[in-house]
Amino acid sequence: MKVKVKFLGPIAKEDKIIEIKDYNELKEILKKEVEEEWLESIAVAVNDKIVNSLENIKDGDVISLLPPVCGG
Q1: Which CATH architecture has domain 2-66?
Q2: What is the pTM of this model?
Q3: Alpha-carbon distance 14 to 52, whole Å?
Q4: Pairing assessment for the beta strands 62-66 and 43-46 based on DSSP bridges
Q5: How distant is the alpha carbon of residue 41 from its chain centre?
Q6: What is the gyration radius of the CA atoms in the chain, in angstroms?
Q7: What pLDDT score was predicted for residue 15?
Q8: What is the pLDDT of residues 21-60, one digit of tens each?
Q9: Coil, helix or strand for 4?
Q10: Which residues make beta-bridge pairs with 59?
């Protein structure tokens, strides 16, 4: 399956289309793409809805990684 991953905010990477077999493969790819400090604190959205897990992703989904923001 192919999914699109958006790296938003301070992560600031180009969006990527990633071909994966399953959730576990995506998880391993994200560990290499995103610094561990961000992975511990980001929110994740699938098709613009915040989710607690990526276990039910399917072909064509758009996954957005939303790091916490600071500001005043």
Answers
A1: Roll (3.10)
A2: 0.85
A3: 23
A4: antiparallel
A5: 12
A6: 12
A7: 95
A8: 998 899 899 888 888 777 778 889 999 999 998 889 999 9
A9: strand
A10: none
